[in-house]
Amino acid sequence: MIRELTEFEPYWDFIKAINADPRYREPMLSTQEQIECNLLSAVSNPQQVPLGVFRDDVMTGLFVFLIIKEERYIEMLVGLSRETAAYEEIADWLAANCPGYHVDFVFHPKNDAIRDMLEKRGASFDPEQFKMVLTGEVPAVDTTGIELLSAQYEEQYIAMHDTDCYWTGDKVVKAPDIFRVFVAVDDGTVIGYIDMTRDNEENEPFDFLVKTEYRRRGWGRKLLAKAIEENRPKRMMLIVDVDNAPAIALYHSMGFTNDPEPVNQCATWIAE
Q: Is residue 146 one of the residues assigned to a domain?
């Protein structure tokens, strides 16, 4: 049975127990800031839907989904359960209530319960990822050619932006309260960009791209250096694919170190 939740206090022991389990913990609840934004705010945010899965009146799963109806988009903000049956039931609920919606999941790679459900339903999986945190000394980098995004470069930025994600360039431009964008400009042409979150105590590069023909020329280092400079004194972290050796080498050279604990994986499913 699925119930929409109006409070979390009665289920706090369940939340803490699952989130403390190294196999089934929720990567989106790794910090107090995430707990407040992804979990606690759900009872008052009209776009967030908190759901509990129960068997014989005992909770077996707790979920929070961001549902943007006008865009037919869903993101799982919280998924806490050790049981594949709970994930199956929540997927059935999504398919019944939001048919055809694009659904993004972020989960711990060892969570076999959600993986089994997603594999059975034909979801597509991204590579495993790990977290890196800026802890070391940042080397001096000449950031000539890196500019804060302005109207002059918006069209070029949007045209080159990655479209295989929810936060496409046009959406980022319309969310200046969430993102600060820097572009790499060579002779009037935008050849790279970095989208940085801006309003958190620990911000992160949300998307980071340099055109293929301009790579290995220092532009990625320039963009990252500018983002670090403008983010101070706030903390910075990032998420990187485990198989992206060039990016990992760049981040290490700029003062980032691996966080050995928080690991995640992303998957996409069309609710049906």
A: yes
